[in-house]
Specification:
- With 119 residues, the chain is mainly beta.
- It has 2 domains: 41 residues, no CATH class; 70 residues, no CATH class.
- The protein has 2 helices and 6 strands, in the order ααββββββ.
- The strands form 2 sheets. A 3-stranded antiparallel beta sheet has the order 1-6-3, with no helix packed on it.
- The radius of gyration is 23 Å and the shape is elongated.
């Protein structure tokens, strides 16, 4: 419960807006997307593509950046191969770990990788 006397300005409005969204809108409105979606049913599809990004502490030459949780299977990677090399390592849960190694002298502060599961 939010006390309007101690809440920061705007907090109460946000809570009210979220409350109205969760209840299907305010009185007199109808949200067909909310009304027609059965509760407890979530439709998902296996993720077959994605993008990974690193921006953080500078990575020295031969330093590593690690991404966990890539899906099992053959993966096509698109990234700057002049700046990074990679290896994929199986994880105990059946997924893969992507390890990028910095090739450039000095340090690097970012890396963007596009991946695609090849079926």
């Amino acid at each position: 419960m939010i006390d309007s006397r101690t809440a920061r300005p705007g907090t109460l409005a946000i809570v009210l807006a979220v409350s109205m969204l969760l209840s299907g809108g305010c009185a007199g409105t109808h949200n067909p997307a909310v009304a027609s979606t059965p509760r407890g049913v979530i439709q998902t599809t296996a993720i077959a593509t994605g993008q990974l990004s690193y921006t953080g502490q500078p990575v020295p030459q031969n330093g590593e950046v690690v991404f966990n949780g890539l899906p099992a299977g053959n993966i096509r990677l698109t990234y700057d191969t002049r700046a990074w090399s990679h290896r994929l390592v199986p994880q105990p849960d059946g997924k893969q770990r992507l390890i990028l190694v910095s090739l450039k002298p000095g340090t690097q502060k970012k890396c963007d990788i596009q991946w695609e599961l090849i079926r």
